[in-house]
Design goal:
Elements: E1 13-17, H1 21-32, E2 36-40, E3 54-56, H2 63-72, E4 75-78, H3 85-92, H4 101-107, H5 110-120, E5 127-130, E6 146-150, E7 160-163, H6 169-175, E8 181-185, E9 189-199, E10 205-207, E11 211-216, E12 219-225, H7 232-248, E13 253-262, E14 267-273, H8 283-286, H9 291-299, E15 312-319, H10 335-339, E16 344-348, E17 359-367, H11 370-384
Parallel strand pairs: 1-2, 1-4, 2-3
Antiparallel strand pairs: 5-8, 6-7, 6-8, 9-10, 9-11, 9-13, 11-12, 12-15, 13-14, 15-17, 16-17
Helix pairs in contact: 1-9, 3-4
The structure holds adenosine-5'-diphosphate and magnesium ion.
Magnesium ion binds near residues 258 and 271.
Length: about 400
């Protein structure tokens, strides 16, 4: 639908597809400005469903629920990329929707993301696309050792396998179910960074400074803002590349582009998240405008104001592992001690069943300077039993 850019004032109802923590934090931000929020999510106890006034407990392709959402909402957004394309198209014909179905569909697929990077002249990892009919024995030897990734539905390192050499590729592909995959060369990473930005219907964009990201076992462990290793030149290059991607997609909404920085200094785009991103959670506490505020602002056609970062911060993810002691017995982390430390902001998502690797919450350590933020975060690691970074 070619929605006009008329401002949708507070009091209106906004819809979100997906009920996880990203939907929850979007809802909380929109509610604080006086918007009503409806979440479409099958899970009755989902994090976002706990905080929204209205919850449509249904699948993302449920026609009645989609119809209700379109009728009740002044605009609709998504909290994650794996919403069925048909649902997006159906909604797009009936209600202002951001991001657009085409942009979302592209970001569901690693092969399409890489094709976009190539088309836009944004460097990315050397790779090959494996689809039915492709001979895995014909893949270039230069791509080994590599990482095989399913083109769709991967997250937090899931749907990925290391492949040491060409001979191991057919078996690895079979292990991933023989679905469409991308084989990427395993790169010698110095570190990772990401850029979160928002772009409005008028094409105006605002960007945060890049944050430096530390992953463990393929899952984000910590984000540092400012990033200790990020030079001004790299920051500018990453912001320019993210801006190019957003413009190339004619994107509306909040977007994150993840990057690798190689030991030889090169910057390569990794993947695009068509939504607020885990690495941008620090903006809730370190900036005057959070990524979730930018999400509702893009949705209601409010001006996008350049965010101002007022605190240095380290964000630590709180995975379900923290809820178990060494013997595997369930326990509650020592929040009282964590909360006794100044500058610590705790965010728990209301997930009732802790599981290993499950994102249960995050916390930020804000301070007047990066050194202090880092020290505070290291102290939190000690209290919680997290391996220091
Ligand atoms: P996900 O969707 O799970 O976030 P990513 O492609 O971002 O998938 O991979 C998760 C993490 O695995 C990355 O952040 C990085 O730490 C590591 N990784 C992924 N691809 C490569 C690569 N080609 N070379 C080296 N490390 C990689
Ligand atoms: Mg990633």
């Amino acid at each position: 639908m070619s929605a006009g850019a008329a401002f949708i004032p507070p009091g209106a109802t906004l819809g979100v597809l997906g009920g996880g923590q990203l939907g929850r934090m979007f809802a909380q931000a929109a509610q604080s400005a006086g918007y009503g929020v409806v979440v479409l999510e099958a899970d009755e106890a989902a994090p976002a469903a706990q905080v929204t006034g209205r919850h449509l407990a249904a699948r993302y392709d449920d026609p009645l629920a989609l119809d209700q959402l379109a009728r009740d909402c002044a605009a609709v957004t998504v909290e994650f990329e794996n919403i069925p394309a048909a649902s997006m198209q159906w909604l797009d014909a009936r209600v202002p929707l951001a991001p657009a179905p085409g942009a979302l569909a592209l970001c569901q697929d690693r092969a399409q993301e890489k094709a976009l990077f190539k088309r836009l002249g944004v460097p990315c990892a050397p790779h090959a696309v494996l689809t039915a009919g492709v001979d895995p024995h014909a893949v270039s030897a230069d791509l080994f050792p590599g990482i095989l990734k399913t083109t769709r539905l991967g997250y937090d390192g899931k749907g990925q396998m290391s492949v040491a050499c060409a001979a191991d590729l057919p078996a690895a592909w079979a292990t991933l179910g023989g679905v469409d995959c991308v084989l990427e060369k395993k790169l010698d990473l110095a570190y990772e960074l990401s850029v979160v930005m928002a772009r409005g219907r008028d094409g105006c964009a605002v960007l945060y400074e890049p944050q430096q990201n530390l992953h463990r076992d393929g899952i984000l462990f910590a984000s540092f803002s400012p990033g200790p290793s990020i030079t001004p030149d790299l920051a500018e290059a990453a912001q320019n590349a993210a801006g190019t991607v957003a413009q190339g997609l004619d994107y509306v909404g909040v977007l994150c582009v993840e990057f690798f920085v190689l030991r030889d200094g090169r910057l390569l785009a990794n993947e695009i998240a068509p939504r607020p991103h885990n690495s941008g959670h620090h903006t809730l506490d370190s900036c005057d405008v959070s990524q979730f505020e930018l999400q509702w602002r893009t949705l209601v056609n409010a001006p996008l104001l350049a965010p101002r970062q007022h605190s240095a911060t380290v964000m630590l993810n709180l995975l379900g592992d923290l809820w178990f002691d060494a013997a595997g017995q369930q326990r509650e982390p020592d929040w009282a001690t964590v909360l006794a430390q100044s500058g610590v902001h705790l965010h728990l998502y209301g997930k009732h069943a802790p599981r290993k690797s499950r994102k249960m919450g995050h916390l930020t350590c804000t301070a007047a300077n990066p050194t202090e933020a880092r020290q505070n975060a290291l102290h939190v690691c000690t209290v919680l039993g997290l391996e220091p970074f």
